[in-house]
Amino acid sequence: MELMEGLLTRRSIRKFQDRPIEKEVLEKIIKAAEHAPSAHNTQPWHFLVIQNKEHLKHFRVMQRSALFAENAAAVILVCVDKGESFSREKEGWSYQDIDGSAATMNILLAAHSLGLGACWCGASPMTGPIAAIKEYFELPENIAPFSIVVLGYPDETPKEMPRHSTERIHWEKW
Ligand SMILES: Cc1cc2nc3c(=O)[nH]c(=O)nc-3n(C[C@H](O)[C@H](O)[C@H](O)COP(=O)(O)O)c2cc1C
Question: How many domains in the chain?
Fold first, then answer.
């Protein structure tokens, strides 16, 4: 699939066929995530691949809006090492979530290009889901869950979403 076509046709998919995703396909998707940009090229990501049905079912408890993970083939939990992401502690900021976003977007696009469906479900910055996920999956203290990417072979073709168009483009000055 050509990149521009992929960008314009990707949609969030929440209904999946009862079919597993091959390990090589998951590895390919994660390779795409590892090629995302990151501030100061820290590449602070870790990817937790979840295929166990009991674990997938537990997302309904940890993040209610990700409950459809129970019918998915896999979740890739995108995590960021807080100690690795570029930050200025004294000034109170970190690129942690922005790095997580870039990797998540690459996963969505790679999945789409490989014939899979995917949906980005939020973890960060919601304190409840973050705490629940950290505890359930026994993440080390320095590892922050960022997003829950739900994946599977698609069993729906969602309608095109209306998009803001050229009225949101500003040239030179607002
Ligand atoms: C940060 C973020 C968090 C999201 N969280 C959820 C979620 O918890 N559950 C869900 O079903 N969709 C979630 N979505 C998907 C959005 O609802 C979806 O991207 C939006 O409706 C646009 O549809 P599209 O992805 O098909 O273009 C999230 C998307 C983003 C970017």
Answer: 1
Q: Whose CA is nearest to atom 31 of ligand 1?
A: 120
CATH number at residue 30: 3.40.109.10
For residue 76, being part of any structural domain is answered with: yes
105-161 residue pLDDT tens: 999 999 999 999 999 999 999 999 999 999 999 999 999 999 999 999 999 999 988
Q: Whose CA is nearest to atom 6 of ligand 1?
A: 121
Ligand 1 is surrounded, with C-beta below 6 A, by: 11-12, 14, 65-66, 119-122, 158, 161
Residue 141: inside a domain: yes
114 belongs to a structural domain: yes
Domain extent, residue 24, equals 12-90+97-153
Judge whether 166 lies within some domain. no
Atom of ligand 1 minimally distant from the CA of 14 = 11
13-29 pLDDT per residue, tens: 999 999 999 999 999 99
- CA of 13, closest atom in ligand 1: 26
- Cα 106 from Cα 18, distance rounded (Å): 24
* Nearest residue to 120 via CA among 143, 162, 159, 149: 149
Q: Which of 67, 116, 120 to mutate to test the pocket of ligand 1 (most atoms within 8 A of CB)?
A: 120
Centre of ligand 1 to C-alpha 86, Å, is 26
The helices-and-strands tally (H runs, E runs) of the chain is 6, 6
